[in-house]
Amino acid sequence: MTRRYVIAALLGFTSFGFGQDEPLPKAETILDRFVEVTGGKVAYEKRKNEVATGTLEFKAQGLKGSVTRYTAEPAEEYFVMELDGVGKIESGIDKGVVWEKNLMLGPRIKSGTEKAQALREGTFNASLHWREFYPKVETTGIEIIDGELCYKVVLTPTEGNPETTYYQKKSGLAVKTTTVAASPMGDMPLEAISADYKNFGGVTMATKMTQKVAGQEFIITIQDVKINQTLPPDRFDPPAEIKALLSKAAEKK
Amino acid sequence: MRIFLACVVAAGLYGQQVFFPEKQRQINSFEKVWTTIRDKHWQKDPGGLDWQAIHAEFYPRIVDAKSDDEAVAIMREMLARLKQTHFGIFPAAVYNDVEGDGGGDGSAGIDVRVLDGKAVVTDLDPASSAERAGVKRGWIVVSANGKPLAPVIEKLKSDPAIHELALERAVRARLSGSVGDSIKIAFLDGANAEVTRDLELRPERGQTARFGNLPPMHVFFETKKLGKTGYVRFNMFLDLVRVMGDFADAVQGCTQCDGLIVDLRGNPGGIGGMAMGMAGWLVDKPDQRLGTMYMRDATLNFVINPRADVFNGPVAVLVDGSSASTSEIFAEGLKDLGRARVFGTKTAAAALPSIFERLPNGDGFQYATANYISAGGKPLEGIGVTPDVEVKLTREGLLAGHDAVVDAALEWIRKKK
Fold it and tell me: Is residue A238, in this structure, part of any structural domain at all?
């Protein structure tokens, strides 16, 4: 379950159908194995918060920037991208309020499918909680992706579009996800490639994510992940503009 | 203009014929046009056509074409099958006419529009060399560095492929040059007497803005009060951080205004998302959109997110034939939503992200990569925004110190009170 950043998108990896006689493992087994190969439940549960920092690049457009993501139990998040010429793009989750703020679209509160999608992705140690998010999971095939056999698993969430994630047969790692992602500008087909898994505090995570959406491709490279940091108590507080929107919505009710 | 990577030129893939250089250029140009449409058009079956069959039909005709002109006519016929605007071939000579000999970052600070076939000064950058030299609004530009503008204007106006936007760019290119150089411009003043000014070319008005691979561009943002009415003007939807911030400040500083004028005349567009963000300061109703852009791989809704402190007074948007792309999306969207009244003249009808490239034969090739439908269900491409109130600038009005379009907007706002 690769985190997706719906600000643009990708293609690129060759994927072939692959016939084989061996019975496909259950999706539940593949998803639980992912947790195991990336550190195991105990290692995940030792983590209470995480601060990840890295870079963002839209190669075709020549745009570069930085990313920082704070996440904490149970589902608190603050994510900020600073892109040259675009400025800050912020998003977050605080006590079930899912928001986004950027100079282009302005501040807004997410709702519906978009909110559900953000909550799935923003839940801390999300990989441990797949049973809460996806009432239906199914292994639908095996394909070669980037030279490796991968199990194709379709995860159907309670709310939102199904996600198809490819897990390497050999390593158990998730390497690609396709879905139709909800965004403020509408539903968009999205493909995300996860690579360069590295261990941070006992849990292995992808540090290079290449995503393609709406004809645009960008790469997020995680350079550092710090675990169990002392975070300021207001770290996940929504910004003033979001609080103003919440107050306005409350007044209307 | 954003230039995409050159498409594959598939010369030689269709047989083993040996062609002379002229023929090879024609074939290479044809292949570039055909392949670009195949790969970049927003529909997988461009215009609902079997594009491979189109190749089979037109390729032999290109091979048999007796001249460059005939080959260009065949390519134009192929593009006409799309029945869509912003797909065209511009002969190299016209392309050169548009680009002119000038060009460069240096500006004398003169804004011009072609009014009744003449290049008329419509605005002067504050403290520019033209303003300091006493150039006035309403003066006619006769020549630049001894080269008369009238023949260029006449020639370009007679070409149906050249729109007002391109015409005015062609004129402006002739009034620009390298920073530090000077330009000798002959004018007809208010009394129709010819006067000449040597004007120093300085960096264009505004601050240098950079956005990814785009070349650096100068962006200015102007805000003022016209009585109790707020007025904002910016020359491009670019320099996102500064312009969005300035727009927000202008709207928030206008809580007591009786109306707001957003002047997009001469604004060729820029980052489409900025139109959505600005509209969020003006539209209070949720779940509204300016329109929808259809691309091959995605459909983008130009959504509006109302701000907490929206400006609810009357909004006038000013446009002209040089208002294009994001300007048109903004103006038509707000007009369709009933949120703004549009004043001025018809816009450039160039809402789509269209791209100009040079073909191997030297001709210019324009193509669009998306379709856009406004909130009211109308395509903008090739049609443009028709103002609610059509008002044309006149030389006489400019000489008298009036901006007829601003005046009309102010009158409407005052009547709304």
Answer: no
User: B207-416, superfamily in CATH?
Assistant: 2-enoyl-CoA Hydratase; Chain A, domain 1 (3.90.226.10)
B300: nearest CB among A84, A103, A186: A186
Residue B245's closest chain A neighbor by CA? A103
Render pLDDT for B345-398 as a digit per residue (tens, 0 to 9): 999 888 877 777 888 888 888 888 888 899 889 888 778 899 999 999 999 999
Chain B residues touching residue A244 (CB < 8 angstroms): 308-309
Rounded to a whole number, what is the distance in Å from the CA of A20 to chain B's nearest CA? 32
> Quick one: angle between helices B51-64 and B68-80, nearest 10?
160
B303 touches chain A (CB under 8 A): yes
pLDDT digits (tens, 9 = 90+) for A200-252: 999 999 999 999 987 789 999 999 999 999 999 999 999 999 998 898 888 87
> Hey, what long-range contacts does B8-13 have (CB within 8 A, 24 or more apart)?
B8/B35, B9/B35, B9/B360, B10/B35
What average pLDDT does the segment B49-75 reach?
A: 93
Residue B233: is its pLDDT beyond 70? yes
Query: Number of folded domains in chain A?
Result: 1
In a domain? residue A237: no
Amino acid at A74: P
φ, ψ dihedrals at A18, nearest 5°? -140, 110
Contact A106 B240 (CB under 8 A): no
Directed axis angle between helix B92-99 and helix B150-157, to 10°? 140
Whether B298 sits inside 8 A of A241 (CB atoms) is no
The CATH number linked to A157 is 2.50.20.10
Nearest residue on chain A to B246, alpha-carbon basis: A103
Do the domain assignments include residue A250?
no
Residue A86 and residue B241: Cβ atoms within 8 Å? Answer: yes
Which CATH number among 2.30.42.10, 1.10.10.10, 3.40.50.80, 3.40.50.300 corresponds to the domain B97-203? 2.30.42.10
Within 254-293 of B, beta carbons closer than 8 Å to A belong to 271, 273-274, 276-277, 280-281, 292
Tell me if A240 is assigned to some domain: no
Pairing of strands B229-234, B259-263: parallel
Interface confidence, given as ipTM, is 0.83
Partner residue facing A188 (CB), from B296, B298, B305: B298
List the Cα angle B347/B100/B238 in 5-degree steps. 45
The pTM score is: 0.84
